[in-house]
Amino acid sequence: KMPIQGKILHACSAIAAPTLSEQLTAMGWGVDRVAIYDNIPLQADLQHLDTALRPLDAVVFCSSSAVEYWVQQGLVIQPIAACIGSATEQKAKSLGFQHTLIASESTTDAISKLLVNELNRQTSSPCDGSLEPIPTR
């Protein structure tokens, strides 16, 4: 059982959701939430991206802000969005991705295996060229 008193510093991004801090506070901890960095989108090399996007089977997102910046660049939302966690998947769905995957663990190893298994499954089954929605957990 967690102690009633104690102090935790939640070092996070300036745009991080307050969920973790709120959960820890509800569990009786004193939480100081401090933004220690800012997420700033880079200006995308659209010519390089145009080449990289043809053909495209999937995009891997490791943060909700990456999904936001992707969509802000006006990039395609038809491929599979492989998401590192549930918050990232929720953001992808809210911004128009219809085909999402979420790993059982929020690790690069888990998302890599899930994505490769799904792409192998799709290429081994007859397909008319259109992707069907992938069930999410």
Task: Give a verbal description of the structure.
With 137 residues, the protein is of the alpha/beta class. It is built from five helices and five strands, in the order βαβαβαβαβα. It has helices at 19-26, 46-52, 64-72, 86-94, 108-124, and strands spanning 7-13, 30-37, 58-61, 80-83, 100-102. A three-stranded parallel beta sheet has the order 3-4-5, sandwiched between helices. A two-stranded parallel sheet has the order 1-2. Helix 3 packs parallel to helix 4. The protein is globular. The two termini are 29 Å apart. Residues 126-137 have low confidence and may be disordered.
Fold topology:
Blueprint: E1 7-13, H1 19-26, E2 30-37, H2 46-52, E3 58-61, H3 64-72, E4 80-83, H4 86-94, E5 100-102, H5 108-124
Parallel strand pairs: 1-2, 3-4, 4-5
Q: Shape from CA axes?
A: globular
Which residue ranges are poorly predicted, with pLDDT under 50 across at least 5 consecutive positions? 126-137
| Major β-sheet annotation | 3 strands, parallel
**Global mean pLDDT:** 80
Query: Compute the gyration radius: what is it?
Result: 18 Å
Helix/strand/pairing category: alpha/beta
The string of secondary-structure elements, in order, is EHEHEHEHEH
Strand content: 15-25%
Number of helices: 5
Query: Which range best describes the helical content: under 10%, 10-25%, 25-40%, 40-55%, 55-70% or over 70%?
Result: 25-40%
Strand line-up across the major sheet: 3-4-5
The number of E-state strands comes to 5
Question: What is the CA–CA distance across the termini?
Answer: 29 Å
